[in-house]
Backbone:
């Protein structure tokens, strides 16, 4: 299934792809070095490989050592993705700083906290009401959004960039701006090199371009940030089993997809190379907020003044 959104003033389609899961243990060690419905998950299916969001909640594989319990799903986060902050109503993924602040404040009023992506990937989550903020593409409006909106609220968004445009276009940040954000504690990951569809089709038609989107993206992003690049956000949300294999070979520990679901703290409940994430658009914000309000109410943590 596809959704159409706008990235860097161009309409693009996002999709989800097949599922799988891995162990977090060794990958979290690397991270230290350098979790949508409003209901709790139902009983895991013995046939499930990976998980999907159904009307009744995420269907998950049970841990290999024991049966799942409701406590296993208690500590989780939802990852959201923003793009740019131009206050342009014609761009579906763009918001003004005032609108962005109002969104974050509305989520805070529901009881949500905002751990960083690094904290979520390391399993440092408490409770059901956690939102991880990510920003894709490296738009030039990001530093001001961080300064004026995110930082005053104690929120540390993770950034995903595609190096081909960094410092070379009028709409992107430069190397120095990204390094300043890294130095202030922001995690930066790769988002392709030219932001191409890293699918089986690209592999078959242009293997060099496919590998550049993964391998050179990691190399160049690392040069810009002077930090290990452990996370990759699939451009357009498009990928294939081969993409995930190459991501692992390239040295990435995590891949972020575009699909509903939570990131959990329990080892074995996440597919590290297909972590769920929702893209925030002008059209879907009300739906995302309603979903998160239901989740807060079902969790029993919704402030009384907000409960209905």
Residues:
């Amino acid at each position: 299934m596809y959704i159409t959104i706008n990235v860097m003033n161009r309409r693009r389609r996002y999709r989800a792809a097949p599922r799988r899961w891995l162990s977090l243990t060794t990958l979290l060690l690397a991270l230290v070095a350098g979790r949508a419905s409003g209901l709790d998950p139902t009983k895991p299916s013995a046939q499930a490989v990976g998980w999907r969001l159904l009307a009744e909640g995420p269907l998950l594989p049970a841990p290999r050592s024991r049966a799942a319990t409701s406590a296993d799903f208690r500590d989780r986060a939802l990852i959201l993705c923003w793009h740019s902050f131009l206050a342009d109503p014609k761009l579906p993924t763009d918001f003004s700083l005032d609108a962005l602040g109002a969104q974050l404040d509305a989520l805070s009023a529901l009881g949500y906290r905002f751990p960083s992506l690094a904290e979520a990937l390391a399993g440092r989550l408490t409770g059901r009401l956690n939102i991880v903020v990510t920003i894709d593409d490296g738009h030039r409006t990001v530093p001001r959004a961080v300064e004026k909106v995110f930082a005053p609220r104690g929120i540390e968004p993770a950034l995903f960039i595609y190096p081909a445009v960094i410092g070379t276009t009028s709409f992107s940040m430069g190397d120095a701006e990204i390094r300043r954000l890294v130095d202030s504690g922001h995690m930066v990951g790769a988002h392709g090199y030219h932001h191409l569809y890293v699918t089986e089709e690209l592999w078959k038609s242009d293997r060099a371009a496919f590998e550049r989107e993964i391998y050179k993206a990691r190399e160049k992003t690392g040069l810009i940030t002077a930090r290990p690049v452990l996370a990759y956000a699939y451009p357009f949300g498009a990928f294939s089993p081969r993409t995930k294999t190459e991501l692992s070979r390239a040295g990435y520990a995590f891949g972020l997809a575009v699909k509903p679901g939570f990131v959990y703290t329990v080892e074995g409940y996440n597919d590290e190379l297909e972590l769920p994430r929702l893209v925030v658009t002008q059209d879907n914000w009300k739906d995302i907020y309603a979903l998160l309000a239901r989740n807060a109410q079902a969790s029993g943590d919704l402030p009384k003044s907000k409960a209905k």
